[in-house]
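Question (not urgent): is this output format expected?
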Amino acid sequence: MNTQPALPELRQKLLLADPSLRDGTFNKSVVLLAEHTPAEGAFGLILNQPSGRTVGDLISDPDFLELWQLPVHLGGPVARDQLTFSAFWERDSKFGFATRIAMDEAKSYLDQPNTLVKAFAGYSGWSEGQLEEEISQDAWTITDPKTNLLSLPHDLTLWKTIMREISPYHRILADAPDEILSN
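Got this back:
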């Protein structure tokens, strides 16, 4: 008999790294979980790790000219040598997105209102059961993306901003010093 509580539907959720995840990749990361099935694993993108580069820094092909100004974010530790595009939008007070879209589709989203197009180097991936195990060990806080996600800075401050909105306990976590035991 399975004694673990059932996980909520994880697809389209935000995963906020627990402060104990201090490795360089997931330290205070906010991951949008785009795909998830317990049998096949999960695919997500870290939203708050800008690389300091733009698409134009990485691709000089004139076919990408309209996308050259897009900042490139580090999407995760897997396939960092691959660049992908995603679009995020707010419509009718609901958050939506399309990940791993082609260049032409990314261009089509550029002029749409309340839409953010982003480029990612790499992605975050979990094999079958791996994410569920990490969640059972409290490595991630799960929350729904709010429509204001598009208006927030997608940098290292995003983790703290979202974490503070979840609950009083999470506000304490967000405001705690990085080296809490050294105080």
